[in-house]
Amino acid sequence: LAQGRVVGFEALMRWRHPTRGLVPPSVFIPLAEDSGLIVAIGAWALQVACRDAARWPGEMRVAVNVSALQFERSPIEVHVLEALERSGLPAERLEVELNE
């Protein structure tokens, strides 16, 4: 911001339910963790964020939040490497943030 330019974005997940409207992450993330779906959802989020960021001009970065449970229950490094390989996004343009 010191130079007045955008250098990156944070990928945020939202769920638009057909009847309940917008369901906040504070509701659906714990459900995903309890059901064991957080690993698949997290891997998908990494794939989409990297794919989209690879299309951005210049060296813009993307930050992706990872659940602590996803970090514990899955080989997160494998998911990150797969997302980078499939998208062609250089690793230095991806930030992985660990949520507690």
UniProtKB/TrEMBL annotation:
Q: What is this protein called?
A: EAL domain-containing protein
Where's the EAL domain? Answer: 1-100
What the entry lists under InterPro entries is as follows: Biofilm_reg_signaling (IPR052155), EAL_dom (IPR001633), EAL_sf (IPR035919)
One Pfam entry name: EAL
**Which organism is this entry from?**
Hemiselmis andersenii
